[in-house]
Amino acid sequence: MVTGLTVDAQEEFLAWLRAKGYSEGYVRRVLGVGQAALNRAWKRQEVTEVPWVELPPIGEPYPHTASREQLVAFLNAIPANSHLWVYCLIRMATGCRGDAALDLQPFQIDWAANLIRLNPEGRQQTKKYRPVVPLTSRLRRELESIDAAYYVNWHGRKIASIKKAWAKVRIAAKLPVWFAPKVLRHTVATELRRRGVPHWEVSGQIGHKKAGTSEIYAKFDPDYLGAARTALDAWLDDLAQSVPRLRGHSGVSHMRKVVGGTRIELVTPTMSR
């Protein structure tokens, strides 16, 4: 019952979450979801009053970035037929969040302008802004070889979560527990700054800087986020020296076969067995 959400009950719940080992950021998000649900119920007059919910202080930002050696170990540990490869490449070549990578579909790619609209048409922007970003050369080659409704897919079906696949590869690569998917985005931002990309371009690339009215057409400028594009290509070129699959030696056949006379699919070692 809503009336049961007393201060004592909330404090007990907070203590339980912390005892489970969840981060302060996660604990705050959980409380925030409950707070929003209560406020919505009150706004719609489903309840006459709601209890006060005090959110914990904002936790420290995620402190980790991946070293070159860690990225190389992780990428080389990804199985040849795993959807995790495309997922990682999308995130590393764009700096996007995980949900944007999982949602990416072919109609979001402007092949002529070499752009990716991370926020698909019809989806309302949220505070986790999805920008339009350059399509880097290596990501373009990868996406051109995929024929499916979603780029991150398993036999054509959209992937709901990569947590299990990520955990298996992380363990195989002998990487620490903190090496979570969000480390890719943090590493992209760090790498861009390390390579001298202006801070406003870094903000634009990873979605911290929302496009204003005067910038609606800026994305069609040939130099749009040019420093970020150059830095990302150079970074992936550097990693390719130690990751054969980035050089196109994936061990996965890119031959296609016609299914039912209408659909074209990639032939992978799993499918051929």
Would you kindly provide a written description of the structure presented here, covering whatever features stand out?
This protein is mainly α and about 270 residues long. The protein has 2 domains: about 40 residues; about 200 residues, Intergrase catalytic core (hpI Integrase, Chain A). About 45% of the residues lie in helices and about 5% in strands. The protein is built from 11 helices and 7 strands. The strands form 3 sheets. A 3-stranded antiparallel beta sheet has the order 1-2-3. The longest helix is centred in the first third of the chain and has 20 residues. It is globular. The C terminus is likely disordered.
Put the structure in a nutshell.
This protein is 43% helix and 7% strand. The chain is mainly alpha-helical and 273 residues long.
